[in-house]
Amino acid sequence: MVVGMLMAVGSYGYRDADAPVPVLAAMALSPYYVVVGLWWARRSSIEIAVLVGAVTALVGYETFVTSAALYLAATESAVNSMTWLGFGVGFALLVALVGAFCGLIGGTLAHPAATIRTIRR
Length: 121
Description:
Blueprint: H1 2-10, H2 20-28, H3 30-43, H4 46-75, H5 78-90, H6 92-110, H7 112-120
Helix pairs in contact: 1-4, 2-4, 3-4, 3-6, 4-5, 4-6
C-alpha cells in the first residue's frame, strides 16, 4: 500500500499523461522490490522472495491505479475512470513480472550459494 501511495505522489506532476505513467512509476520502485525480496528470502527461500516481489509490485500498482480511478470518478467522467481501471488490468502482468524478477534478484542476493548450486545442475 505504501508503494502505491509513493507511486501516486511521484506521478502527481504527470496528471495529464496516460497509461505509461503508472507503469513507469512501478518500474522506478523496482529497487524496493529487490529489498523486499532480500528481506523475505533471508527468512525463507528464493521462491518466496519471487512471490513477495510480485505481490508487492502488483498491490502497489493496483493501489495507485485504483486511487487514480477514484480521483477521476470524482472529478471527471466515468469513462476516464473506467479507462484507468482498464490500464490497471492490462498492465498488471507486466508489473507482476517485474516485481517477480526483482524479488528473484533479492533472493539471489540472500542465498548466493543455493543459486550457484542450482545453476551448476
